[in-house]
Fold this protein.
Amino acid sequence: MMLRKAALAGALVMMVAACDGPQEQAGEKADNASGAVDGEDSIESGPAETMGERNDEAADSANDAREAQADALEEQADAARDAADQKAEALEQQADNVRAH
C-alpha cells in the first residue's frame, strides 16, 4: 500500500513538474505587464517569473518534506499497533495458561 502511494505521488509530481506553478505564472504575467520580457509568448524568463519558479520549487520541496514526515508517522503508528497486537496476544496466551492450570 505504501509503495502504491509512493508511485502515485511520484507520478503526480512528474505531471505537476511539467506545468508552471502558480507563483511562476503570476511572475510571468508581472514580467509581461512591466515589459521585462518581449511578449507573452517569449521564451525568456523575466525576474519575477524566475523568482516565482524558485518559490514554487521551495513550496514543492516543503510539501514533499511534509509528505515524507506523514509517511514516517504512519509507519511508526503501524509498528506501534503491531507491537501492541503482539503484546495482547502474549497476554491472552498467558491468561489461557493460567486458566488451564
User: Anything to note?
Assistant: The chain is about 80% helix and 0% strand.
